[in-house]
Structure formats: structure tokens, C-alpha cells
Amino acid sequence: MFDNFDEWADQRLSGLPAASLVVAVAEHGETVFGAARGWADHATSRLATLDTPYLLASVTKSLTSVALLRAAQRVDLSLDEPVANWSDVLPLEASVRGRGPTIRQLLRHTSGLPTYFDFFYDGIDSKRTFRETASQYGLLESKPGEIFRYSNLGFAYVDALSEAALGRTTARLIEDEIFAPLAFSSGHVGPLYPSPELPAVRYSASGLAYPNYDTTHRGASLAWGSALDLLRFAESLRVHGRSLDEAETADLLAVDQAAPSYGLGVRISHSRRGAAFGHFGSMGGCASAIFTAPKLGVSAVALSNSTAGEAAVREAMAAIFGGDVGNSPDRRSADGTELDPYCGSWHGTVWSKHGGIPAALMIARATGIQISIASGPFIPVLASPREAGAVIAGSARLTLPTADALVRSPRVQISLRTVDVDQLSGTVAASSAGEGEGSPWIGNHLPYRAQFRRST
Fold it and tell me: Which has fewest Cβ within 10 Å: 87, 97, 111, 373?
């Protein structure tokens, strides 16, 4: 790839009308490769460079986690404190506050909070506050520490906790603990880059420039940085004492049975070239990756300003570290035989802030799962991979009758667990399959508690 990077990048960009790819690699502290290809801003013919700031999507989680680790050590804040200690500013379901998640579980995605993301587009949406979001969607889908469930909402709680416990926003925390010590010239956290002529313009897969957008989970999604600055951050994690000391690094990389390949805001891989850790990111108009392999002595960054750039970013990381770098925890799809215990008719309720919405399921081995909402027709559910503990998972082209769901969330995503032989519980989420479903922009994933009983 590195011997013919321009040709490789041009092939990956050939189907993307207005995008770029940037890759940078360091070995044992020296930058050994760096190249950029394509447009940072197609409209002005501005080319991408190694210094161009890109929106980093979920790579932000690694920055947030490292910054919090550094700050917590100095103020004696334990990551094992439950967030219920700040219940006045961190709403949780009243029934579970006593056994609520810890800070560590929020960073590790084992908090029990549901899968969640939201985007509020300039000139189109009014942004919800964190309190409004947490009050409506801050439900515990499982017991804290029980399973890994990737949730941006957990990092929204970290954002609020940073202000409550440390007196600093996540943006300020990252600035103080990472950007300033590492002399970032491109670092920023927030929906708008302060110098609009500098960053890579974000493009949809079809080449449309994204409008500016905000989210309630900034500490999960809204950091900006250049390839060279991020490579310096990756190298600082590879070498003890630069960003984290040995004990803090051990804390960052510690795993447990619920999350065997995810530490605190970092994915951990054991590829054919050795252990590596870091993160991928992907959302509207951006794709990113940052990984470092301490024993190998290698760190790398890959960035794109297209929603469709994720495949190329992952391909670059696979070429550098090995084919399985950054793989997600295993999920399984259900075959027909696994549905046998649940075959039949089920009735239930999907709970929104305005009250209960009647729902029903029909499950058969031959025809699979069908769902009805608000006494409407039954719609087929396309089975999808299931997280640990779930017995039924899938999506259907069906819009929930709630105000939030009507905003770029034209599907329902179902995830249900067994309570007993006659009860299922979990979430039915208003969701989007991506760009092009009723909107050129990425939509939301908004979970509602759902309960079903077997019909007699």
C-alpha cells in the first residue's frame, strides 16, 4: 500500500465524488510514512494535507477516556464511583439508581445503557439538553457490568460528570490534558471548527456537503484533529510516561468478561502482528482510525471526510497491523431453530415519555419475526446480529408514532431478552439505516423500553 499509496487511494476514492484519504505511520518514535490524497474542500479545490483537521467521530472516545484518566488521578476521583453520586445532574431511572453504573462502566460500554446516537443539524433541528435526553433515554437495558453494549449515551453521561466532578467540560478537559501537553495545532472539540477555512469539509457517500451538526454526546463524537497531531497522541500512548504512566495505561487497557476486547475508550486487538489498541470512528461525513502497538513499536492514523470512507480507513489499519485489528465483540445472528421457544403471538407496550404505545409480535420458524406498532399492520423484521443476552434482534421499515422518531428515524430496531418463558423485555428503538432513508443525512437511534407477554 505504501509503495503505491496514490494509486491505492485513488482507487478507493474513485466512487466518492468529493472526498480524501490521509494516512500517517510512526515506527519507534519516527514518522516513517505520511500521505494525503483527495479534496479537503471540493468546492474551493483545496487539497487535503497531513495537517488538515478532520472530525474524528468515535476516536473522540479515546481522547475523552485518556483525559479523564489523567485528571481523575490528580483529584483522587475513583473510576469505580457510581454515577448515582451525582444523581442531581445525572438522571437515571429511579428504580436502578442504587445499583447504577460506575464511571468505569460508562467508559467501557458495560453500563447497561442502551445503544444511542443523535444528530442535530443547523437550520433544521432544535437540540435537546443532556437532561432531557437522559430523562427520556437513560434507561438501563441490562444490569451494569453484565454485557458490552456500545452506547454513545454513556459518554454523554461522562460529559455531564466531567462538569459535575471536575468542574470542566469534556472539551476543556481534552484541551488541558491532551491538546496542550502534546502541542496540538489542530485540536478542537465541538460542532464547529473555530477556523472554518481549515478543516476537511464533510461529505455524504453521494458527495453532498454535510451541514454543521451537534450532538448530546460530544465526548463520544465531536473532537477534531489532523493526522500528524493524532499520530503524536498515539505515540504518547505507546510510550509510558508521556500521556499516561504505567498504572494508568494498565487501567486504560484492563478488560473483563463482559468486555474482553474493550478497555476504557479503546478497542484492544491481538492480531498476527501483535497486540494493538485504539479506536475506529464513523458518522456523517467522516471516518477515522488511530491505533498503536507498543511491542511492535508502531502507531498509525487514517482519516477520511466521507461517510463512505470507512472501508478504506479500515483497510489501511488492516494493512499496517493485521486483518483483525479493532474487531468488535462477537455478535450472532439467529437461525430459524433458535426462534422455536418464542414462536407464537406476543402483545406488549413500547414506552415513550408520552405513555405506552401498543405493540405486537408474531414469530414463526417459517416466516420469522413480524411486528405491529399502534395496532397497525404486521411488518417483517430483518434479523440482525444479537448482542450477548438478546434472544431476538432485528429491524423493520416502520416508524414509531413519536415526535422524536419522525425526525430521520424511519425504522425500528428491536433487541429483546428473556424475562421468563412468557415474557420478553428490552428496547424498540427509532432508528436510521444511514443516508438516503428519507434524508440525505445520517439519522438517530433513540431507544424506548419495550415489554411483551405471550398471548394466550
Answer: 87
